[in-house]
Specification:
- The protein is α/β, with parallel strands linked by helices.
- It has three domains: 219 residues; 149 residues, 2-Layer Sandwich (Alpha-Beta Plaits); 255 residues, TIM Barrel (Alpha-Beta Barrel), CATH 3.20.20.450.
- It is 61% helix and 13% strand.
- It has 25 helices and 17 strands.
- It has an eight-stranded mixed barrel. Strands 2-3-1-6-7 form a five-stranded mixed β-sheet, sandwiched between helices.
- Helix 2 packs antiparallel against helix 4, helix 3 packs antiparallel against helix 6 and helix 4 crosses helix 6.
- The longest helix is centred in the first third of the chain and has 84 residues.
- It is rod-shaped.
Length: 692
């Protein structure tokens, strides 16, 4: 039984008991009132009938005296005597009828459940000293005899007045009886009224006692139990709200609470004047998790919350949006300078070294913010602007940024691109350009890198830097990767059809595709669709992918791709936060030296030493090393001298569309074009479909 069912049953049971008790009291009240009304009616009728009986008795006496008076007179005719006799008889009949009704009332009261005639009234009629009923009956009988006698009999009996004398003399006793009866009836009525009042008082007191008992014994406990239940429900609801709107790890608000608070803050802008929205993201949190474990990572998140709360105002609301990203709402903050100062303090507080069990852990953060209503009063746009500032803060520099007009232009341009992506995919506006990979020693081609371009109908050919960030934010990176993969394998198929073998074509594989377990199945499908063996394809992943929260899933996806016989390269190696443990845990075949190091060959000894270290590391691990961005002969000679066998850059060839690549390859045919020997066994095309 649920709590609500129990509550309903408890209320129903108590109400049923209360209604039953009140119904019993109501019935008792009804019965007592009914009995009182019946008894009162009887007393009223007795009083009326007794008065009527007394009046009829007087009429009988008057008629008797009149008859006796006329009989004594000698000039009275028989007709007159008979007429007076008939009048006396009528008076006697009326008298007897009333008398019979009184007797009926008294006898009915003896058998009734609702009333009884008081004994005092009954004694007046049937007992000494009055015996009123006997006197009335005797008087009625004697008067009846007089009324029925013939005129001659009456004249002869005039000398014997004993009958009439008795009749008339008994009237005094009877009148006293009437007076006694009326007195007793009146006294009985008063007693009955008093009894009824006592009964009503008793019923009223009983009702009050019952109601008080119900309150104390039924409704009181019920109200207390319901109150306790409601308090428990309120506490449970508060606990659920706390769970639903707070982050269990840090105790701060969560994304749901932040979204709700943001909507409320927008509504209160007319009262508060505005507010600031700040986003903070830890830069090397994944590295801490990998190096020290998730428990230490959780402690670090709690420490970051404590540090942020130490610099923000008490009225500000801090929430953990997920992972290592935090959001702060600061009511009343509307000036850019104040926001910039607060962002700088948050950045400073969250970038101090953290001591954990004697270990100094280097932590840092990126912080961005926007103002409402200065930058926007739309919650989604304001959040997008703050996120844009956060993204800008992650670039080299102070790592904190307030949204400004430059970022607004970039954001507006990004919004325009977002609206155009649908058309771009539908109209196949994306195309692939290819940059050759060559041997540094002799310039022979060993592979290609596929680089996407957007043939915009109005803005012309757009490089990846112009749209990739917006595309990733739009969640279309997987769609673009499918397009690049399909176009690249289609072009490889075409090249091979013309006898041009250029080694594997490298396609960048984004985090979304690897983390979603889509990469392996999409690659298999594309290879089978174009009839291409796995050794014709290579994938490149960047260091930021290695730092993903879905690293384990990505690691499994990369291994599955490698098991197909497809080469795996780490792109832009040395520029991110990847550690040597990632080289140990991830399956790969190739390290690509970032162009920022290559560009400083001859000018920065530190960059040259990093290149030597990467080449030495690759040689020790038995992995190929490719240098990106080679633009001068001096850079090429340095790489050859350090043992870097493969490179790509404008010194050899710029990225070119497929038609230009075909002409370029045809012109360089013969010794420069040859298939690159594979360094490890690869599955054949016939075995491809059987690879898991």
């Amino acid at each position: 039984m649920t709590d609500s069912d129990w509550q309903v049953r408890l209320v129903g049971k108590n109400y049923a008991i209360a209604i039953a008790i009140l119904a019993g009291i109501s019935l008792a009240s009804f019965l007592s009132i009914h009995a009182s009304l019946v008894a009162q009616a009887v007393h009223v009728e007795l009083g009326i009938r007794s008065s009527e009986q007394s009046q009829n008795f007087n009429r009988v006496q008057t008629a008797t005296r009149a008859l006796m008076s006329y009989v004594e007179r000698p000039d009275t005719s028989d007709a007159q005597i008979r007429r007076l006799g008939r009048q006396l008889k009528e008076r006697i009949e009326d008298f007897d009828r009333v008398n019979a009704r009184i007797i009926e009332i008294i006898q009915t009261g003896d058998r009734s459940l609702w009333f009884s005639v008081p004994d005092s009234i009954r004694r007046v009629y049937f007992e000494e000293p009055y015996k009123l009923q006997d006197g009335l009956r005797a008087m009625s009988e004697r008067s009846t005899v007089l009324a029925t006698m013939e005129p001659g009999e009456l004249r002869r009996a005039v000398v014997h007045w004993s009958l009439m004398d008795f009749t008339l003399s008994s009237g005094t006793t009877i009148l006293k009886g009437f007076d006694g009866a009326l007195e007793k009836i009146h006294a009985g009525s008063l007693e009955h009224v008093a009894r009824v009042e006592r009964i009503h008082i008793a019923i009223t007191l009983l009702t009050l006692v019952v109601l008080g008992g119900e309150v104390l014994l039924i409704f009181g406990p019920m109200v207390r139990r319901l109150g306790a239940y409601n308090r428990a429900v309120a506490e449970a609801r508060n606990e659920l709200d706390r769970i639903a709107y707070s982050d269990p790890l840090t105790g701060t608000g969560n994304r749901a609470r932040f979204t709700k608070a943001l909507a409320v803050a927008i509504e209160r802008v007319p009262q508060d004047g505005g507010f600031a929205l700040i986003l903070c993201d830890l830069d090397r949190f994944k590295a801490v998790n990998d190096a020290f474990g998730h428990q230490v990572g959780d402690r670090l998140l709690a420490e970051m919350c404590r540090r942020i709360q130490s610099v923000i105002e008490p009225t500000a609301m801090l929430a953990r949006l997920g992972g290592d990203e935090f959001a702060i709402l600061v009511p009343g903050m509307t000036e850019v300078d104040r926001l910039a100062g607060l962002i700088a303090r948050i950045r400073a507080a969250t970038s101090r070294t953290w001591n954990w069990n004697g270990s100094e852990i280097d932590v840092s953060s990126s912080v961005g913010g926007a103002l409402c209503p200065l930058h926007s009063d739309d919650p989604d746009r304001l959040l997008a602007y703050a996120d844009k500032a956060l993204y800008a803060a992650k670039q080299p520099g102070p790592h904190h940024q307030v949204f400004d007009q430059t970022l607004r232009r970039e954001s507006d341009e990004e919004a325009t691109l977002l609206r155009e992506f649908g058309r771009a995919f539908a109209d196949r506006e994306f195309e692939v350009h290819y940059q050759p990979k060559v041997r540094t020693a002799d310039g022979s081609i060993v592979g290609l890198e596929a680089l996407v371009r957007w043939r915009h109908p109005e803005r012309g050919l757009l490089a990846p830097a112009a749209f990739l960030t917006a595309l990733h934010r739009a969640g279309r990176s997987v769609d673009l990767t499918k397009v690049v993969l399909d176009l690249s394998l289609r072009d490889v198929e075409s090249l091979r059809g013309h006898g041009l073998h250029v080694g594997p074509v490298a396609v960048n594989m984004p985090e979304a595709m690897l983390a979603g377990n889509l990469a392996c199945s999409e690659i298999l499908e594309a290879l089978e669709r174009h009839g291409i063996s796995p050794d014709a394809l290579s994938i490149e992943i960047t260091e930021d992918v290695l730092m993903s929260r879905a690293a384990e899933t990505i690691q499994a996806s990369v291994k599955a791709i490698s098991d197909l016989g497809i080469r795996v390269a780490f792109d832009d190696f040395g520029t991110g936060f990847a550690s040597l443990s990632h080289l140990r845990d991830f399956t790969f075949d190739e390290l690509k030296i970032d162009r920022s190091f290559v560009a400083e060959i001859g000018t920065n000894p530190m960059s040259e030493q990093i290149i030597r270290s990467i080449v030495s590391l690759g040689r020790s691990l038995g992995k190929a090393v490719v240098a990106e961005g080679v633009e001068t002969e001096a850079q090429r000679r340095f790489l050859v001298g350090e043992g870097c066998l493969t490179a790509q850059g404008y010194l050899f060839a710029a990225p070119m569309p497929f038609e230009a690549l075909t002409g370029w390859l045809t012109a360089l045919r013969a010794p420069e074009l040859r298939r690159v020997a594979d360094r490890r066994p690869r599955p054949t095309a016939s075995r491809l479909k059987h690879v898991p």
